[in-house]
Amino acid sequence: MANRITSLFNIKYPIVQAGMIWNSGWRLASAASNSGILGLIGAGSMYPDVLREHIQKCKAATDNPFGVNVPMLYPNIEEIMDIIVEEDVKIVFTSAGNPKTWTKWLQDQGITVVHVVSSVKFALKAEAAGVDAIVAEGFEAGGHNGRDETTTLTLIPMVKEQLSIPLIAAGGIATGKAMLACMVLGADGVQVGSRFVASEESSAHQAFKDVVVDAKEGDTQLTLKELAPVRLIKNKFYNEVQELYKTGPSVEELKTLLGRARAKRGMFEGDLEDGELEIGQISGLIHDIKPVAQIVEDIISEFEASKKMITNL
Questions:
Q1: H or E element in which residue 80 lies
Q2: Which ranges of the chain have pLDDT less than 50?
Q3: Which helix (H) or strand (E) holds 95?
Q4: pTM of the model
Q5: Does residue 106 lie within any of the structural domains?
Q6: What angle do CA 190, 8, 138 make, to 5 degrees?
């Protein structure tokens, strides 16, 4: 299944395992890379010394390429980037910031740089900044999203129309059929997040994995746009946010309710009432917890079968 993405990352299949905070430790990233896709360590939930440990363990667990996802809004970003270079990581996905800030510096260290965007406008800015590829993420995705609420099936062809560098689709992709649909629309590959949350190797708390498996259509909602838009499973904390909205809250009042470490409490520690439970809309189609290798095999098998079915129409 060779194309621009498999060549760029030296992987077998054009699939990226998303670098999700509190879910994407070295076990998930190495299992993904060992399955023929690109595994990503989610640096957003790690102090620098913890990130170094995860990178070292991932290198020991796989001989295949893997990368690190780095949200650029974190205060210790310089230390994180130095560790990535010191540990000889060759692929970095950046997000939540200006790609001009780090792209050339990383590339000068021999690192392939991919930037995550949610709109055509930011895709073009990332291309102008010199990134090697783009992840265009639709409104369906879990975690933090763009404010424009553009869905994946709308976003991908719009970005493709304007872009010349490799394009990776993200948001609402958990099956081979969705992968094929995105590639028909112009994507060179796909990034999969929520499906890998419900994997045996995910570092998410078992209670959170079980909630993801039990989720139905309509159980997630995008909220907290005034801070940073985030898609959450509806729980006690989510309901408290909605009650506060009825009062016309200020940004400071929303920040006070959010507090600190909500995502860690929900996804990593398993606090299903007061934690943030970040997951995509596609959770309604996730019905079991499987090893990463089986998830990848299922996606590729369905992709190939769907491609044959379309050919025979």
A1: helix 77-86
A2: none
A3: strand 91-95
A4: 0.95
A5: yes
A6: 25
